[in-house]
Amino acid sequence: MAAEPVLRIHTDPAQIDAAAWDALLARQAEPTPFMRHAYLDALHASGSATADTGWAPAFATLWRGEALQAACPLYVKSHSYGEYVFDWAWANAYEEHGLAYYPKAVCAVPFTPVPGARLLAVDAEHRVLLVDGLVQWCRQMELSSLHLLFGDDEDIAACQAAGLMLRNTVQFHWNNVAPTLPASLGSLPPEGALAALGRPGGGGGYAHFDAFLAALSHDKRKKIRQERRKVREAGVGFRWARGADIGEADWDFFYRCYARTYREHGNPPYLTRDFFRRQAAQMPEAWLLFIAEREGRRIAASLIALEEREGSPAVAYGRYWGALERVDCLHFEACYYQPIEWCIAHGVRRFEGGAQGEHKMARALMPVRTTSAHWLAHPAFAEAVERFLAREDAGIGHYMTHLEERNPFKG
After folding, report:
1. Cα distance between residue 403 and residue 358, in whole Å
2. Range list of H helices, 318-378
3. Are 85 and 182 in a shared domain?
4. How far apart are CA 113 and CA 149, in angstroms?
5. Which residues span the domain enclosing 316?
6. CA 341, 330, 175: angle at the middle one, nearest 5?
């Protein structure tokens, strides 16, 4: 007879065997570098995501005997910062009725609105058992709620089976898929008049950046060229480095830019310098850095994360950026055009531009739904939130339709 499943809670990710965690992650349909043990442990060990910053780790593992069957990052939170699925209105409603919304439980990667596997499991059965165990644990701890943020399809199916409510939001992703265009298509304008529109066979990845531009409508193509020209004419050039080729000085410069971006908005940076030092040491291959230079000095940087599949980068994630000097359109160049051009050159199939920002559509990042799941302990509030989510989802549907009508590609 198989042993009964047992849920264990860990107050430090270092308490969980890294190899066992990463082996579970490798079995998932949508792994990301942000769910690797080294990433999550660095968040804690660097002081970025700890009880002192409102992210008290309570990582969950599910066991049968001595066999690890499922696991997930779980935090007990005293606020809603750094989540990107906004529930401040729910917290305010609780407070208005004399109830405590915090502490709550969040299954997520701190400060990281990237869709992907959150519930690491050997199969669907144990994924559902893990969710059931999380809800039971939240009840025992008298937490107000449980929130799984930016899960993949398998996560969401498990949450539905466990009775959680679903919430959709919208992100913008670029896909390296060249459309198959009719042979009668005219040539490009002089700046980039190239015959090939994609890789051989049609419908594969773009052959180069100009081939990508060729797939866009005239107005969008013209706008991108104008934006890139402004950066060039300002005397700004770019270089990139990946993995171990990102030197300590480059990491230091990047962090200056990153921290400045937060401070310009009146906030301290979420991540410490030590966090990035640990990333450089423990998982350097997951990082790609673009540095903007003008007249021999560095002026801006953008940091991209990479997920490898079968030994090659397959997905790129726009994460952080900052600038020490202001240059018109520099943000677009550093955060979209340089990464997209790199993705095309290296056969990366998708670039995820991060949360929010429908301005990204003008740069051919297309809208996609992302889904989170929610459980509230209070029955009346759960019913009210369920009604709210139904109305919100109808609005998301209308919004997606509106966005699709603004498709930047040629009809």
Report:
1. 8
2. 330-332, 338-345
3. no
4. 8
5. 178-348
6. 30
The whole-number average pLDDT for the span 230-256 is: 98
Closest CA to 121 of 133, 103, 136: 133
Task: Pull the structure tokens for residue 168.
Answer: 């959709």
Half-sphere exposure (Cβ direction) of 340: Cα atoms closer than 13 Å = 26
CA distance 371 to 150: 5
Residue 266 lies in a domain: yes
Residue range 282-339, pLDDT digits in tens: 999 999 999 999 999 999 999 999 999 888 889 999 999 999 999 999 999 999 999 9
Select from 332, 326, 389 the least CA-distant residue to 362: 332
- Sheet (strand 59-64) strand order: 5-10, 59-64, 67-72, 120-121
**Token couple for 42:** 């660095």
Q: For 106-158, what is each residue's pLDDT tens digit?
A: 999 999 999 999 999 999 999 999 999 999 999 999 999 999 999 999 999 99
Q: Tell me how far apart the alpha carbons of residues 136 and 118 are, in angstroms, rounded to a whole number.
A: 18
Do 332 and 254 reside in the same domain of the chain?
Answer: yes
Average confidence (pLDDT) over 50-54: 97
Query: Higher confidence at residue 270 or residue 201?
Result: 270
3-state SS, 232-261, equals HHCCEEEEEEEHHHCCHHHHHHHHHHHHHH
Sign of CA dihedral 131, 133, 139, 144: negative
Give the span between the Cα atoms of 167 and 86, in whole angstroms.
10
Q: What is the pLDDT of residue 62?
A: 98
Q: In 3-state terms, what secondary structure has residue 64?
A: strand
Which of 23-37, 113-127, 189-203, 351-365 bottoms out in mean pLDDT, i.e. has the lowest? 189-203
Number of domains observed in the structure of the chain: 2
Using left for φ > 0, alpha for ψ between -120 and 50, and beta otherwise, residue 347 falls in: left
Q: What torsion do the CA atoms of 328, 330, 331, 337 make, to the nearest 10 degrees?
A: 130
Strand, coil or helix: 205:
coil
* pTM exceeding the 0.85 threshold for the entire prediction: yes
Model confidence at 358, pLDDT cuts 50, 70, 90, reads confident
Rounded to 5 degrees, what angle do the CA atoms 86, 89, 92 make? 130
**Same structural domain for residues 101 and 134?**
yes
